[in-house]
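ingest -> validate -> predict -> emit
validate: passed (alphabet ok, no gaps, 103 aa)
predict: started
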Amino acid sequence: MTNVSPVLPAQMPAMSPASTRADSASMEKSALDFETMAIGQLLQPMFDTVDTAKGPFGGGSGEEAWKPMLVQEFAKQIAAHGGLGLARPVYEAMQRIQENKLK
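emit:
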C-alpha cells in the first residue's frame, strides 16, 4: 500500500527505483517548503502592522525577536493543512523538469 501525500498528483506513475522515490520525496518537500515560504511572505506584512506595545506582553525587543518564528510557524500550519494550492503545481513543474533532464 502506498502512502500518497496531498501534494502529489493522484495519478502519479509508480516509481520502483529507490533513488527515484527519494528524488520524488525531495521534490515534494521542496514544493511544500516553497509554499510555506510564500505564505510566510504574505503573512509578514500583516504582523508588521500590529502594535504590540499596548498588548498584554508590552512588545519590546524580545517580542520582536520571536515574531518571525511565529509567522513561520503559522505559515507551516497553513501549508500543512491545504495552504494556497501552490505546492502541487510547483511539484508538477519540478517533475516535468526532472523528466526532461532524463530524456
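The chain has a mean pLDDT of 81.
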